[in-house]
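User: Quick sanity check before I run a bigger batch. Here is a single chain. Can you write out its predicted 3D structure?
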Amino acid sequence: MKRCLTVGIVAGELSGDNLGEGLIKEIKIQYSNSKFVGIGGPKMKNQGLQSLYNIEELSTMGLFEIFLRLPRLLKIKTALVQYFTKNQPDIFIGIDSPDFNLRLESSLKQIGIKTIHYVSPSVWAWRPKRILKIASATDLVLVLFPFEKEFYDKYQISCKFIGHALADIIPMHSKQRKAQKKLQLDHNKQWLAVMPGSRLQEVRLISKPFIETCIMVRKKHPNIGFLVAAANEKLEQEFKMIWNFLAPDLEFIIVRDEVHNVIIASDSVLLASGTVSLECMLFKRPMVVGYKVNLLTAWLLKRLVRIKFCSLPNILAGEELVKEFVLNECTSEFLFPAVDNMLRTDHTTLIERFNQLHQSIRKNADKEAAKAVLKLISK
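Assistant: Done. Predicted structure follows.
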């Protein structure tokens, strides 16, 4: 019988929980006698993860918010180092959340634990000197996009391009009518999905300009319906509070825990920049992207960010495929004309481009990630 393999693993966001779920499932297929301990969300826990803390403890948005929560984050980091020092795993995997996980990985590597960072920080976009910290903190980086592999190779840092698990999960063609039926939507209407974020602070900042945009859209497109995807009850209640204050007469259908079905059922999407922009690209839905942060974080980002685009479809393509409005431009004044144009435009060429990008990152990521983990353990 094979010895029991212990994998330390920490995800700090719901998107990381999705990746962690697939990775744990695939490791168990390739090495059945394995156990997992660290921090994760409901999907990772359903795969058998022993989660030492709630994933929401690590979910922060913006530099200012991280500063406010720093004492608690440091306390959790110290406790995890103590736990993994006493109960040493065969390997440790940090999924995304680089400001937390890279520090943890560095501490664990110093005591002889092999470390992997899964999902590269955006070193190609801002704070490029972090590449040196990544090199010292990790034995291997698993990256989702081909341009990231090229960046790491320039610095001769151990890295493997595995593609993105979402590109494997999401089919090349989706069934809109089936999703509309499941959500009990009128298929004769045009549907705009409204997605103001998966974090509480995002919903607080971005819901207002999105709702104001929807008010203007309804006046010009009276037959349109609005769908809102809420990741959990807390986010749903926050959106409802802002909605009832700004436009209680405007109808939104709020759907919880059905992000993919909301995207599939929609004809187009108004969204906060993040993983959801990639999901919309993979589902071949046209989108308009908006994003806001608090004033201090915005001030810092303007001085630190080195790239032209913020949404993954544009970054992957290296050109503007979808309209983006960030910081001061994330207002209905800018968003409405773009959404109005999106609702009236034929998107055949855009969909073809989305198909090409989908294929470029469809590499059986869960299986490739698990193979890389087990290979590093065996060295």
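The radius of gyration is 21 Å.

User: Great, the batch can go ahead then.
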